[in-house]
Amino acid sequence: MQSQDVAQRHGRSDGPATDVQQAEAALVEHYPRLVRLAYLVLPPGLGRRRRVLTAHALVQRALPRGRASRSAIPAQAGGASGRSHARGRDAQGGDAGYAFVRLQVVRAALEASRPRKGLPKRAQLPPLLPQVWGLRLFPRSGGADELALDQRLSELSGPARAAYVLRGLERLPDADVRRVLKSAGVTRAEPVLAEANGVPEQYTLLASPEFDACTLQARPTDLVRRRQHVKAALAAAAALAVCGALVALPGGGWGPDGAAAPAYAANPAAEAALDPGRLTRAAPAAWRTSARTDFSVWPARGPLTGDEALLRRALAVWARPGARVRVSATPGTQTGGPAGPPQLLYAGRVDAARVVILYDGLRIARYAEPADGTEGAALDFARVDGASGAEASALVLGRADGNVRYLTAPWVRKAAERDLTKPDAAPAALAVTDGVTAPLASPALRPGACTSWNVLQLTDATGTRLATDLGELVPAHLTAGRPGSAGEASGAEGLRAWAPFACSLAAERSAGVRGVNAWAYARQPLPDASGTGTWMCTRAETWRGDGTAALAQFGTPGGAAGAVVAKGTDVTACGPRDPHVLAGVLWKSASGTWYLLAAGGRDTATVRATGGVTASGQGPLLAARATQGARAELAGTLTDGRRIGGLR
Question: Are the C-beta atoms of 523 and 546 separated by less than 8 Å?
Answer without folding.
Answer: no
